[in-house]
Amino acid sequence: MGKGREFRISSFAFRVYDGRVDKLLEVRGLTVELATAAGWVRPVNGVSLGIGAGEALGLVGESGSGKTMLALALMGLLPEGARVGGEARLDGQFSGKNLAGLGERDWRAVRGREIAMVFQEPMTSLNPVMRVGAQIAEAIRAHEPELPTAEVQRRVLAALERAAVPEPRDRAAQFPHQLSGGLRQRAMIAMALAGGPRLLIADEPTTALDVTVQKQILDLLDTLRRELRLGLLFITHDLGVVAQVAGRVAVMYAGRIVEEGPAHEVLARPRHPYTAGLLAASPRLRRSKLAPIPGTVPQLTALPPGCAFEPRCAQRRPECAAALPELRAVSADHAARCVLV
Known about the structure:
Elements: E1 4-9, E2 12-17, E3 23-36, E4 39-52, E5 56-60, H1 67-75, E6 83-90, H2 104-110, E7 115-118, H3 122-125, H4 132-141, H5 149-162, H6 168-172, H7 181-193, E8 199-203, H8 211-228, E9 231-236, H9 239-245, E10 248-253, E11 256-262, H10 263-268, H11 273-280, E12 328-331, E13 334-336
Parallel strand pairs: 5-9, 5-10, 7-8, 8-9
Antiparallel strand pairs: 1-2, 3-4, 3-6, 10-11, 11-13, 12-13
Helix pairs in contact: 4-5, 4-7, 5-7
């Protein structure tokens, strides 16, 4: 990946990277269906996206929009009985294989080795009765069980160092409750890196962290992406956060991608009313009144027949309720699912 240029729009600062991006993950029409008492619902509905090696894609949306369910589908961690359709393909060792159709045995070779995930809350993701180093070692042995103990320990310390954990030998001997929130999140990142994945999914990794530690974690993820040429899928509801780490942004609502494009273009000139609403509701450095989006994300069992955002949209038109809009091109690499485009 080439050198980058930094842009600033209002209180959002982000970097646009130049140079060729090698395709790492390609998702086409991915659908996840779950059984509920009210029938089958689709928390992920026809999602298509791509991530290149060394590229960061920010996935943004309110709670309940389907972001985490999409991540779990890419990790093979969906609830039992879930139905998956569409395609998700990695290059390299699994070229030609559709991840959406893998069985659990095949997923074990992918999970942790090809794709790894940093979960939202490290205190509930880490085992409270195992030392941090032992948990990272377990992640390594899951893929290389015959590895000598000395080599496993070397890799544990190397992973902690890579995640910028101070005094890694001492931290490896501690239990999760003995670490601060920021160090627990770094330990989770070290565990995710231990298997040498090429794609890292970070699901709200800065939740419940103070602003200073949040910035450190974001800088760490950006450094890892550049140095290891990791593909990074960064999931958040905070546009101010995604602007700091992602070159591209995909906005998700009610299970669908409603806008996607370069971060500087989407945040400066949003073309979907939902994206504009998220920006208006985001805190800024300059004092101004926040404008919340009226209403709530619709229940998946009662989606409107047309655009899912239509009941909440101040710019709705009669055709919005008639049929689901297609993604329409704004520019060569920017599209929005809206009749106003």
